[in-house]
Design a protein that fits this description.
This protein is an alpha/beta fold. Helix content is 38%, strand content 15%. The protein has two domains: 195 residues, Rossmann fold (3-Layer(aba) Sandwich); 135 residues, Rossmann fold, CATH 3.40.50.2000. A seven-stranded parallel β-sheet has the order 3-2-1-4-5-6-7, sandwiched between helices. Strands 9-8-10-11-12 form a five-stranded parallel β-sheet, sandwiched between helices.
């Protein structure tokens, strides 16, 4: 019998690609016959910005420890309140495998130390943010005997972690990009972006193009904080997506915009280098504001002067995405990864 798999997931209200991918992996695992759950902190919490049927449970204390929440009230009150909030916590068995986002850093070592663990590292450039400058391998959760593997979402993340740790198991899972949901519709003269990602660069790029009279008749729309279905609709009807990613593990919005038939212009954000192809996008070196502004002007001109331009790049982008980021590839990756992890867990238990 396979061990139960618990994905520890923060109670984030705002739209988050990382949260959505945790839910996605739990869904796929259950569809493959594994037993997997998302574990939030506060009873009744559910993301409101996308629809799901994913099984959820709650464990107040594991999140309280991971968040290292400071005591702003007397210690007796904190302990009493924690006991009240934790009384309905999911019972975590010693046989359960706990899956943690990389952002919890050194605190992963401290919670449920006897349980087997997996790190789901969707943002490799955040891997060591909470660690001291001069750290040793033993201080990290990656080399602990209890850590069975690290899951990542891009070749760049593999290279990053291999540079730090030459001998840990790193397993890549290709994201599934749903080309049935993200698909071109009647295109508007609309440029979209996400203000939570390096917005000061976007402002400069748009301002320069406004001063050069390139944006007459164009609508500029921020997708930040929109529900998932509204983001999908906006991508499908827009002509240009401005990518301001920097240190990203993969960056879903950029590739989803490509599937939607947008001309994606901007920074690949490191993890996006594997799909930011010049045949159907306009990659720009990070922080090169002048080139970014120039590429936006070039893109606007191509759309205006070449009626088939957006159709042509959409066909190329969608063919590439369907060949590399299909549901079948994702399921195969997840199955292979968890077959490996469960075998390692069995070997560890029998040792």
């Amino acid at each position: 019998m396979n061990a139960r798999i618990l994905f520890i997931c923060p109670d984030i209200i705002e739209p988050s690609g990382g949260v959505k991918q945790i839910y996605r992996q739990v869904d796929v695992l259950n569809s493959l016959g594994y037993e997997a759950l998302v574990v939030h902190q506060n009873q009744g919490f559910k993301p409101q910005w996308f629809e799901f049927d994913t099984p959820i449970e709650y464990h107040y204390m594991i999140h309280a420890e991971l968040n290292n929440q400071p005591a702003i009230r007397p210690q007796w009150y904190v302990k009493l309140r924690e006991a009240q909030l934790a009384r309905n916590d999911l019972k975590i068995e010693n046989s359960n495998i706990l899956v943690f986002p990389e952002a919890y850093g050194p605190l992963i070592n401290q919670v449920f130390p006897s349980n087997s663990k997996v790190i789901y590292n969707q943002g490799c450039y955040n891997s060591f943010r909470k660690f001291p400058l001069q750290l040793t391998k033993s201080e990290t959760p990656y080399t602990r005997s209890s850590t069975l593997a690290t899951l990542v979402n891009s070749d760049d993340a593999i290279n990053y972690l291999k540079l730090a740790f030459s001998d840990i198991p790193i397993l890549k899972i290709h994201h599934y990009i749903n080309t049935k949901a993200f698909k071109p519709t009647t295109k508007k003269k609309q440029i979209i972006y996400m203000s939570r990602k390096n917005v000061e660069d976007i402002k400069q790029i748009v301002q320069i193009n406004a001063l050069r009279n390139n944006l007459n008749g164009w609508v500029i729309k921020d997708l930040d904080q929109l529900p998932h279905d509204e983001i999908t609709h906006a991508m499908n009807e827009s002509s240009i997506f401005l990518s301001s990613n920097l240190d990203e593990g993969f960056s879903l919005p950029s590739i989803e915009a490509m599937a939607s038939g947008c001309l994606v212009i901007g920074y690949p954000g490191k993890g996006g280098k594997e799909y930011f192809k010049p045949e159907f996008s306009m990659p720009v070196p990070e922080k090169d504001i002048q080139q970014f502004a120039t590429k936006l002007e070039e893109g606007i001109q191509k759309i205006g002067n070449q009626p088939q331009f957006l159709d042509d790049i959409a066909q190329k982008a969608r063919a590439y995405i369907e060949g590399h980021y299909s549901e079948a590839i994702e399921k195969k990756d997840i199955k292979n990864a968890w077959d490996y992890i469960l075998k390692a867990n069995s070997n560890k238990s029998n040792a």
